[in-house]
Amino acid sequence: MTIVLGDNQYGKAETHVVRVTRGATHDIKDMTVSIALAGDFTATHLTGDNSHVVPTDTQKNTVFAFAKDPVGEIEDFALRLGRHFVSDHRAVTRARVTIAEQPWARITAGGKPHPHAFERAGSEQRLTAATCIDDAEWVVSGITGLMLLKSTGSEFWGYREDHFTTLPETRDRMLATAVEARWRYGGSGIDWAEAHGEARRLLLETFATKHSLSLQQTLYAMGEAVLEARPEIAEIRLSMWNKHHFVVDLKPFGLNNENEVFYASDRPYGLIEGTVTRDDAAPAGQAW
Amino acid sequence: MTIVLGDNQYGKAETHVVRVTRGATHDIKDMTVSIALAGDFTATHLTGDNSHVVPTDTQKNTVFAFAKDPVGEIEDFALRLGRHFVSDHRAVTRARVTIAEQPWARITAGGKPHPHAFERAGSEQRLTAATCIDDAEWVVSGITGLMLLKSTGSEFWGYREDHFTTLPETRDRMLATAVEARWRYGGSGIDWAEAHGEARRLLLETFATKHSLSLQQTLYAMGEAVLEARPEIAEIRLSMWNKHHFVVDLKPFGLNNENEVFYASDRPYGLIEGTVTRDDAAPAGQAW
Amino acid sequence: MTIVLGDNQYGKAETHVVRVTRGATHDIKDMTVSIALAGDFTATHLTGDNSHVVPTDTQKNTVFAFAKDPVGEIEDFALRLGRHFVSDHRAVTRARVTIAEQPWARITAGGKPHPHAFERAGSEQRLTAATCIDDAEWVVSGITGLMLLKSTGSEFWGYREDHFTTLPETRDRMLATAVEARWRYGGSGIDWAEAHGEARRLLLETFATKHSLSLQQTLYAMGEAVLEARPEIAEIRLSMWNKHHFVVDLKPFGLNNENEVFYASDRPYGLIEGTVTRDDAAPAGQAW
Amino acid sequence: MTIVLGDNQYGKAETHVVRVTRGATHDIKDMTVSIALAGDFTATHLTGDNSHVVPTDTQKNTVFAFAKDPVGEIEDFALRLGRHFVSDHRAVTRARVTIAEQPWARITAGGKPHPHAFERAGSEQRLTAATCIDDAEWVVSGITGLMLLKSTGSEFWGYREDHFTTLPETRDRMLATAVEARWRYGGSGIDWAEAHGEARRLLLETFATKHSLSLQQTLYAMGEAVLEARPEIAEIRLSMWNKHHFVVDLKPFGLNNENEVFYASDRPYGLIEGTVTRDDAAPAGQAW
Q1: Which pLDDT tens digit goes with each residue over A32-83?
Q2: Any residues with CB less than 8 A from the CB of D149 and at least 6 apart, and which?
Q3: C28 and D120 in contact by Cβ < 8 A?
Q4: Minimal C-alpha gap between A120 and chain D (Å)
Q5: Three-state secondary structure call for residue A285
Q6: pTM, rounded to two decimals
Q7: Rounded to 5 degrees, what are φ and ψ at D8?
Q8: Do C1 and B156 touch (CB under 8 A)?
Q9: In this structure, is the dihedral angle defined by the CA atoms of residues C58, C62, C63 and C68, taken in order, positive or negative?
Q10: Are A2 and A8 in contact (CB under 8 A)?
């Protein structure tokens, strides 16, 4: 028996960079950038020989220096960084650059959008992860922190019962969910901003309009809607928290509660995870 | 020397209630309600005699039961609850009901607002605290989680220097701040929703348009704008985090950085706190 | 009516400094330091004239520079910083320095304490706040993040009932609480480390041994035990979260549950706040 | 092209159960239990037919009901739950039960351990994940929230330099890390408590005593020490945050700083991830 080094990677995580593009009006791009490099790093693990190691401090510097050029969409910026690490450092065989973008909206002042003042536009973040190897690259993008709720149009019944079942069936329940969606792109020449905006719109519209018999059904319909409309998306993975809202029993107080007053519980929660894909999608390779 | 009980209060904190108003279109109100009761509670502290104690479980039930009636604005709901505890329980001499409202926006589907599907609209919360005693009451409302940023229009120079000063003066800096604002209402017949909306608008517009020589100056101008426009507001307290964005030195990489690439730091941060009031404002009493 | 500036203060918050004292064995002190200065700062608020303003960046530098000298207990360090700002800057009439200390314990290696390797010793933090004015100063110290639980020895019954009461009385409940305790010192020549250690010990022992008829009773007994034993403590303020653990109803599964299986709920929680003091305690002044 | 359902699983996450074993002295076990079931769940995704679905509410009930029997170590409890879901529900082909255990220590009162009063013993959690299929099962255990620091005995030099390198080499740096370790067990008849305690001890001792030329080297040595000593552990995965502590430049204040005063930075941080395994380890199957 010999002890050996298995999979490994390292990098600088969560470099928080804000890029201002100045002019008559300013634009800002607020990104948290994480880098993970894999490759020929056995020596540093076994002997502390760092000759192949690109310090994480250098990686941070690279993020800032690269942000001096026009950033473009986060997918563009992630790819640019990923290609750099793979091409400039022989020991690096795979670079994954993950970016979370925090949204800002222009403040309206005097009825007009202000040229250089902004308010944070929600807790939802736009995500991307570009993975680059010598002769291939993959882009996975997505959303995190999206909170959705429908106050009707959701049922849950006909489920399997056993010795531990106490849940009553319902033909009308509140459905609230925190969504993390990540989708893998295929092909080239993709309009990242449009693809993202449309994927987001389709996820929300489908959540709203699909009558739900289970959160799984809603999840699948949301993924299906994206794949049907966006040929550049090969696969979508959805992770949806079922954030339970319980109808409060008001009978002890002489009141009816016809799905009007809910207690929003923190934990436990349901966690529904699923992938929707195409049967002819290109293999995912090292995308995830 | 005798050991004695001093100030004390107790209550149920963070009851998370969601109220749905059903009809052709649904409306939702998502509130986290905290209650604190003060009064004649010496016995439970000294001997464990609970005969004056309204259990916090009962307080929670009361929140849910009261939510069955139309909730109105959070200020209305807080007052209704506060008055109840003071009037129905002789031992309770002061009730403070604090509510944070989480915002939701209707999802747009097929170009139209959906009747019963919603997306969470940001991490900013609307706040209120109603404090009721037998013969008086006070309302303090506000905002928390508001993040603002201006990419120019801010300077910082002419400050006091000492042995420990290394900060260079600047005529152009990024100014980013997390704001918590709370304002005390005076008078009666107040339109809570309009007052809140206008106070919020004035805070944002002033942040945007006031050229800033210090965050203190910005804070004062924001408070002043609210007081000038809203006679129903007697006093406003602002707590503003100066979330530092440092210009990254790109010279080692042969690049200039003319306020374009910033490192957003988490800690430490500046914390600027100030009150703006009227010289003839009614006393705050137990409002805070 | 004139709009005026009311109470205000500003400073650098959460400067995270770690001080190593090197020798044959190393000692470390891990502190998060927050400073708030009040005084003659009207000009910066009204006109942006910063001539009285000690930049928060300078305050941060001062923390680091002062940490070069032996730090001592956090109370010593806070006082040293507080006195500096009041004495060296005429505009500063009050300086409050708040410190949270993160605890570390030496790692045991080969059966012996290691001279320079440490593991973090829990999430509880030791706190202090020193408030200095020209001719007086106050020290408030304490603990936050202390979690206590007793699985029996707690009752709750005999409380006031009303239309909204559904809680059954209990002669045996689990009592779990997150404690924040802060106590004000009086007198001089205090041994900060001993006083802190003993106050902590007394809080824990009293929580453990006092049979509880209400969390209020437990709170008072804890405070009383500290004041009885420690003459240097004039007043103690306790904030205790009642973190509810509900007995799960297992009858649907044919099982009895005699206070064995509990569901630990996150929210809502009870919040019990109280002050225990001496009737002859010196006035608190600006201590809090 | 057809759109199809890919990998999916669902379950109840973060059921927080506290089990008290009563007697002359009480024992408590504080666990957060998450369940994920995979299997034949296509129908609910495609049509909302829930006949195969074991509701997450039932899963929660099962956790509580199973906790009525003696819990044992978290690995025992996770296996018992996992086996139940796979064996009792034909549609379930894989059940993964993940448990985080929160540690409590007995309060010392009057010099003796108290029989039923406890204090929370740190923020570190013991972890396990048991994965069960019809004819196999795997156990992965570990630790999260472990914070380690050494104030000397760490160097970093000889790394690769490029256009973006500014980091100076160092022969003496502070090394602070937040560790998540997870290890896969092989074989049977394992003493879970002893294996966990020893793995933890070896990780800490190795961190302390191994002179470090890189965090990668430290990571590998920690994993190697565990594998060398514990034959029941087949593989260990370590994720270590390099929590940077920067030596503060005190020269502007006329002071030397010989690795005494550090600024502890939050973000960005280095993230070092690696696996240490045996060349003859049994395949991991669905363990992870």
Answers
A1: 999 999 999 999 999 999 999 999 999 999 999 999 999 999 999 999 999 9
A2: C28, C104, C117, C118, C119, C120, D174, D175, D176, D177
A3: no
A4: 20
A5: coil
A6: 0.98
A7: -155, 155
A8: no
A9: positive
A10: no
